[in-house]
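Researcher: Here's my situation. A collaborator sent me these components and asked whether they could plausibly form a single complex. I don't have experimental data yet, so a predicted model of the whole assembly would be a useful starting point for our discussion.
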Amino acid sequence: MIGSILFIAQKYFLCYNVLHMITLKSVTKKYSADSMGLNGIDLHIEPGEFVSIVGQSGTGKTTMVKLLIAEEKATSGVIEIGGWDITRISDSDVPLLRRQIGVIFQDFKLLPKKTVAENVAFALEVAGEKRARIRQVVPRVLDIVGLNHKLDRYPHQLSGGEQQRVAMARSLVHRPKILLADEPTGNLDSINTQEIIDILKKINEFGTTILLVTHNREVVNQLKRRVITLHGGRIISDEDKGKYRL
Amino acid sequence: MLSGFFRIIKFSFQEMVRNMSLSIMTVLILILMLLSINTLMVVKVLTDESVTAVKKQIDVSIYFNPEATPTEIQEIRDYVSAFPEVEQETFFTSDEVFANFKKNYNDNADVLSSLDEISQNPLGPTLIIKTRDPKDYSKIITALSVPEYENIIEAKTFGDTQVAIDRIHVITTNVQKFTYFLTILFAVIAFIIIFNTIRVAIYTQRTEIGIKRLVGATSWFIRGPYLVESLLFSIISVGLTYLLVDFFLKFLDPYMSVIFEKNNLLSNYLSQNLVSIIGIEFAVVFLLTIISSGLAMRRYLRT
C-alpha cells in the first residue's frame, strides 16, 4: 500500500519537478541473436545538460532514443528517468511518460492535412487540454520558435527548417523537462541547421535537458558541450566538452 | 475528460468522412443484413396470420345419411357436444342443406337440371363441428368412426384444410430457412467489411496514430474514434433500415388487408413492437461492429 502510494507520488513529483535526470544502468537491447542495438550501456545525465550523442549508423543512437520514450523495451538493465524506473513501464503509463519528454525527428512527423497551429494544438488535444488553454499556449510556443506569423500555413507550404521548428514547437507544448532530438538537422541546409541548434540552445537555457543525436560534426564541435560517442552499441567516449571524433 | 470525449467524437466523424466510400459500403451491408432480419419478422407475422386465418376456416363436416332418424342424429349431437374440445356445433337440416346446395350451384345449369330430374332431396342433414384446436379434429373423427354410427353417418370431411396448414408450414419454414441463411451471409459480409474498414482506416492513418502516440495519447484516445465509428455505423444503419421497413410495410399493408381483412397489419405490428425490434437490431449490429472493429484494432493497433 505504502509502496504504491510512494510510486504514485514519485510519478507525480517527476512530472512536475525532477524529470531531468536520466540514468541507464547496464542497458542492453538485443533485436536478435546477431543484432545488438545497445550493449551494456552505463550513462548518467544531469538535469539541464546538453548532451550530443554521436556515432556511425547502426551504433545504437536511435535505439537509445526509442528506449527513453518507451517505444522499445530494454532486453536487460535499468533505465530511470527522474528516479522513475521505466525499464518495464506498463502500457498505460507510456502516455504519461511521453507527455513529459519532447521528441523531434529528422522527418519532422507533421500531419500534412493540419495547419501549423493545428499540428501544435494536436499534442495538447490528445492530452485532453481545454480549448481555451490550447488557444493560449499554441501561439506562445510558436513565438518561441519564430513561427507565430505562419499559424495557418500547411507543412507543405513551409521550408524544411520551418517544418522542424513546428515539430519543435509541438514537442515543447507540454513544457517537457527533457527534449530528445534524433537527427533534427539531417534534412536541413547549414542555415536552417544553425537556426535549429540556436533554438535548442535557447530551450536548454530555460533548464530543459537536451539529448541531441547527430551525425553533424560542425554542430557538435560548435556546441562545445558533453559528447557521448557510441560504437557497436557501446559508449567509447564520454567527454564534458567534447568534439566529434569519428 | 469531457473535451477528450468530444474530440474522440470529432475524430470519428472525420474518419467516416475521409473514408466515405468504405463507410457507405459498411452501412449498406448492415442495412441489407437488417432488412433480411426484418424480412424474417414479416414472414413470421404473415405466417401466424395465415395459419390463424386457415384455422378459422377449419371444421369437421358430418354428413348424415338421409335415412338417419332425428333420434339418432340427436344422440350423435349430444355425444359430440359432450367433448370439452368442441367449441361450437351447427346443425343443418336436409332442407337447409339442399337450399344451400342449390344456392351454391345457382349458376350451374347441369347440376340444377340433375336435381330436378331426381325430384327429391338426396342430401341428408349436416353437422358442422369447430374445435378449440385443429389438432382435436382427429379425436372427434376417431370418436365418430365406430361401427354403431356407420349407418347413420354417410361421410366425414376434414383432410383438405390440414393439407393447407401443412403446406403453409412447409412454405414458411423454407422461406425462414432462406432468410436465416441470407441474414448470416450478410452478417459475415458486414463483419468482413467493418473489419477491413477499420483496418484500412488504421493503415491510412498510421502516421497520425504514430504521432498521437509520440505526443502521449492514451490507448483510449487512439482507439476511441474507431469504437465511436462503430457506434455511428450502428445508429445510421438501424435508423435508415427503420425508415425503409416502415415505408415497405406501409406499401404492403393495403395488399395484406385484402388477404387477411385487417388494416395496417404489418405497420401495427412494427409500431407495437418498435422498442424491442429496434433494440434487438441495434444490439445485434452494435455487437457485430464492436467485435469486428475490436478484432481489427487488436490485430493492427498494438500499443
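Model: Some features of this prediction you could bring to your collaborator: Residues 1-19 of chain A have pLDDT under 50 and may be disordered. The beta strands of chain A are 22-32, 35-45, 50-55, 76-81, 84-85, 101-105, 178-182, 209-214, 226-231, 234-239.
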